[in-house]
Amino acid sequence: MTKDTRIPSTSQSLPIALLRAREKVMGPIRHMLADAGVTEQQWRVVRVLVEEGPLDPTSIAERAVLLLPSLTRILQKLEEKGLVTRAQDDVDRRRQVITVTQAGHDLIAGNMPASLAYAKQFRDQLGDAKYSRLLALLNELNDLEL
């Protein structure tokens, strides 16, 4: 019996399909973020903090899908921009707690209408059922234990 060693088409590659989809979704959002003066990663961090409240860096990295060493630099930039503050945890003095500032809240609130409009464009083009199913499948994929 011979083993099939043909390379599958890139259109049938899950990693490549996910990357292509990410680029399709993020393209218009990158322009919005550039106008707002933040990077994609900075936006994700501030958005997580607005949604979740004050968090330690490890929790932020997990929720914003960032590596901890990268987050350290991102937090420094966000602090310089006045979008977050850092403080020592009252209980565990070794632990830092990151909090979004009013300027960070304003950044998210001011750009959320444009962000939601981009999401609506995708939802309108895919249709409600496919859009909801796509999100459900992606969340299911993220929950897999591999």
> Can you count the helices?
6
Mean pLDDT: 93
Task: Write down how many β-strands occur, each being a DSSP E stretch of 2 or more residues.
Answer: 2
Spatial strand order of the main sheet = 1-2
The largest pleated sheet is described as:
2 strands, antiparallel
SSE sequence, one letter per element: HHHHEEHH
Tell me about this structure.
By secondary structure, the protein is mostly helical. The protein is about 65% helix and about 5% strand. It contains 6 helices and 2 strands. It has a two-stranded antiparallel ribbon with strand order 1-2. A hairpin with a 7-residue loop joins β1 and β2.
Keywords:
146 residues, mainly alpha, two-stranded antiparallel sheet, 2 strands
Indicate the topology.
Layout: H1 14-36, H2 40-52, H3 57-64, H4 68-80, E1 84-88, E2 96-100, H5 102-126, H6 128-143
Antiparallel strand pairs: 1-2
Task: Characterize this entry briefly.
The chain is mainly alpha-helical.
